[in-house]
Each structure stands twice: as structure tokens, then as C-alpha cells.
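Input record, target 12 of the design panel.
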């Protein structure tokens, strides 16, 4: 029972992290498609893996009973998704060191002391963010998270299969026929 609850929790975490990844990467695919350009491999690989993984995660949550019965197969597919997410993250690896945002400030700072007290102007601080860079970096981070999440669910399924095999009982039914010894 605890294995089923843990499995459902991690599946929901996968779905929660896959939905924003799908949205951000779909934005890029749409932008490239609208510009009549080929989508770069780094975006396309992670996008395809995310679409397939989201469909798989939703399917296995909705069919939890059959997921538990075929735990070895589902665990194998989860490990395949771990490998696919590793490939997607590897393709998008160049964004890891990118600086997507910076702070800018006014350099003026003044303080005046007069009869009315102390007055001052503090410098203003602005945050400048490159939207596309930040979305790629977030997709990169969600890809790493999903790689870990799918590994956790794969091992949970292996654990659930092992404990389920131990719980199975062998029931044998013995029947005895009673023969009548009627003499005719």
C-alpha cells in the first residue's frame, strides 16, 4: 500500500514538472515553425521526450491496477525514459552556463542633511531577464528533475513487484471422488 502511494506521489510530481516543460518547449517549436525554420535538435529532443513521458505518466496513473500487475514492464519503460531525458538534457547542455538575467542599478546615491532631517535618494535596481534563455534553462532543470523522478518510480515499481510476488499465495484445490460400490 505504501508503495502504491509513493508511486502515485512521484507520478504526480512527474506530471506537474512535465506540463510546464511541454509549454515552454512548445513555445519554441511554434516560434521556429512560424518562422519557417527547422527546430534545433536541443529543443526538439527534449520536447518529444516530454510529450511521450507526459502521456506515459498520465496513462500509468489512470491505469494504476494494471501498472501494478505489469510492474516489470512499466519499470523498464521508466528506465527508457530516464535514458531519453539524459539524452535531452545532454543536447540542451550548452544553456547550463548561460547568464539569462542581470541586475542594473543607477549609480546615483545622494543623502542631504538639512533642518528638516535626513533625505536621500536610493539607487533604483532593475532586473533584466532574457525570456528565451530563461525558458530554455528552466526546461533544462525540469529535464534533470524528470530524469531523477522517472528513476525513482522505476525502482519503486521494482520494489512493488518484488513485494507483490512475495504476497501471492498458491491455492490448490483437492477434490475427492467418492465411488459407490453398487453391485448389480
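The sequence produced for target 12 reads:
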Amino acid at each position: 500500500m505504501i508503495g502504491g502511494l509513493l508511486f502515485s506521489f512521484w507520478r504526480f510530481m512527474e506530471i506537474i514538472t512535465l506540463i510546464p516543460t511541454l509549454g515552454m518547449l512548445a513555445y519554441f517549436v511554434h516560434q521556429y515553425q512560424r518562422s519557417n525554420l527547422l527546430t534545433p535538435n536541443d529543443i526538439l529532443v527534449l520536447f518529444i521526450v516530454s510529450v511521450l513521458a507526459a502521456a506515459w505518466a498520465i496513462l500509468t496513473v489512470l491505469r494504476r491496477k494494471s501498472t501494478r500487475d505489469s510492474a516489470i514492464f512499466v519499470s523498464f519503460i521508466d528506465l527508457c525514459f530516464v535514458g531519453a531525458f539524459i539524452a535531452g538534457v545532454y543536447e540542451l547542455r550548452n544553456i547550463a552556463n548561460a547568464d539569462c538575467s542581470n541586475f542594473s542599478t543607477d549609480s546615483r546615491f545622494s543623502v542631504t542633511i538639512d533642518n528638516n532631517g535626513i533625505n536621500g535618494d536610493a539607487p533604483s535596481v532593475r532586473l533584466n531577464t532574457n525570456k528565451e534563455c530563461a525558458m530554455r534553462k528552466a526546461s533544462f532543470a525540469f529535464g534533470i528533475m524528470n530524469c531523477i523522478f522517472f528513476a525513482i518510480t522505476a525502482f519503486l515499481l521494482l520494489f512493488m513487484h518484488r513485494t507483490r510476488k512475495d504476497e501471492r499465495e498458491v491455492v490448490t484445490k483437492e477434490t475427492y471422488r467418492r465411488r459407490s460400490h453398487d453391485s448389480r
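Helices lie at 2-34, 41-62, 64-69, 71-91, 131-167.
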